[in-house]
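Long-time lurker, first post. I've been practising inverse folding by hand and with some scripts of my own, and I keep getting stuck on stretches where the structure tokens seem ambiguous. Below is the full token string for one chain I'm working on. Before anyone asks, I'm not after the true native sequence, just a reasonable design that respects the backbone. If someone could post their per-position residues I'd love to compare against what I wrote down in my notebook.
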């Protein structure tokens, strides 16, 4: 029996050599896959023209550049605050007293013991005494200073002075109404079945004679009114003015069509004088422009 050789036989050597040659040929035909991706992209024809090869990442720089920091506007330096003016000592005492009164009162209300209520009442008495002394000083100053005396400003409070004031006011206003009567008339809206209209009619007739302003009586129901011969029947002006209550008195200026309400119900002569002189002033007309109406008078 032949002894086995320590070396491979010739057949095995031929097979191994063939295998190595085949491997080398395949490597040359398809390219070496161990090359860099960028080289294999052009050398490997089997990948085709549309094969995508991602690019290599750039190597990081040794000195990275940080993004620029946006500049912020510098804050203005705070201005030194002006020191508050020192408060007067009287105001400090007043505020202290005011807080004390409020505190004592609240404590006495929440816990009305004898000590708490007494403490509040004693402090309140001091405050009342101080206020009374202030009133006495103010009164003496008013007596010695006419421009500061309230009894001499406007309508007086003394009975005799009030009588003189009312008489003087009536004379002055009567002249004003007489002047106003040259360009204005009074519209008196009434109904013949209204007892208040019949009671008010004599006052208006006397007012016309005394102050010289014409009164035009307008009947809402077509009936007459004693004391007014030239009574007119309402031709729609009452509806335009929305007269819903009689008696009603309006002050009208015929050539401009301006008309203003004087009042409703029974009025005295003094009330008529005061209201007519008041509403006829430019200041009063500017104060309540919605009260003034302008219509076509026929």
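-- Answer (accepted) --
I ran through it position by position. Result:
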């Amino acid at each position: 029996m032949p002894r086995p050789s320590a070396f491979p036989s010739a057949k095995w050597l031929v097979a191994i050599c063939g295998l190595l040659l085949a491997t080398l040929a395949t490597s040359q035909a398809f390219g070496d896959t161990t090359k860099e991706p960028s080289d294999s992209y052009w050398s490997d024809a089997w990948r085709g023209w549309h094969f995508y090869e991602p690019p290599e990442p750039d190597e990081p720089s040794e000195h990275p550049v940080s993004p620029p920091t946006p500049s912020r506007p510098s804050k203005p330096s705070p201005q030194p605050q002006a020191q508050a003016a020192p408060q007067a000592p009287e105001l400090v005492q007043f505020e202290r007293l005011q807080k004390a009164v409020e505190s004592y009162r609240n404590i006495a209300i929440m816990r009305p013991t004898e000590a708490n209520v007494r403490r509040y009442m004693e402090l309140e008495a001091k405050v009342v005494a101080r206020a009374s002394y202030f009133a006495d000083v103010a009164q003496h100053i008013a007596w010695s200073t006419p421009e500061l005396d309230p009894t001499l400003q406007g309508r007086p409070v003394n009975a005799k002075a009030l009588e003189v004031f009312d008489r003087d006011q009536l004379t002055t206003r009567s002249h004003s109404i007489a002047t106003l009567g040259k360009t204005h008339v009074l519209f008196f809206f009434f109904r013949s079945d209204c007892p208040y209209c019949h009671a008010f009619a004599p006052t208006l007739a006397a007012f016309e004679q005394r102050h010289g302003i014409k009164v035009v009586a307008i009947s809402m129901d077509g009936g007459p009114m004693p004391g007014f011969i030239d009574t007119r029947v309402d031709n729609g002006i009452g509806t335009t003015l929305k007269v819903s209550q009689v008696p009603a008195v309006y002050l009208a200026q015929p050539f401009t069509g301006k008309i203003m309400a004087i009042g409703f119900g029974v009025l005295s002569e003094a009330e008529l004088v005061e209201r007519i002189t008041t509403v006829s002033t430019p200041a009063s007309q500017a104060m309540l422009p919605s009260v003034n109406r302008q219509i076509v008078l026929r």
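A couple of notes from the structure itself: Confidence is low (pLDDT under 50) at residues 29-38. DSSP finds nine helices and six strands in the chain. Happy to go over any region you disagree with.
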